[in-house]
Design goal:
Length: about 100
Amino acid sequence: MKNEEFKKSQMKKALISFVIEQSLIDAGDEIFEKTLKNLKKFDSDVNDCNQHPDYLIKSITEFPKKTREQILLSITKKLEEFDYQPEINEFIKIICCKQ
């Protein structure tokens, strides 16, 4: 049973990471690259953002407000269909409050 829970947790982490990457790529190559660079300041990468959404939020603070809102809204929209899962719902709540 523990192994099954671990697999589900890893799949949710992968989903959130994929959605973040896709939303950053959609915002533009420069934004994507700069965000990855900023995440390194936290000794982190996109895969760590599900556990530390604050890293993502801090990594996009230098962008104009409209760009930040667009990125966070894109992530939220892409994850909406999975928000019945507590971990994903909590992640969405955290990033929504930062818009």
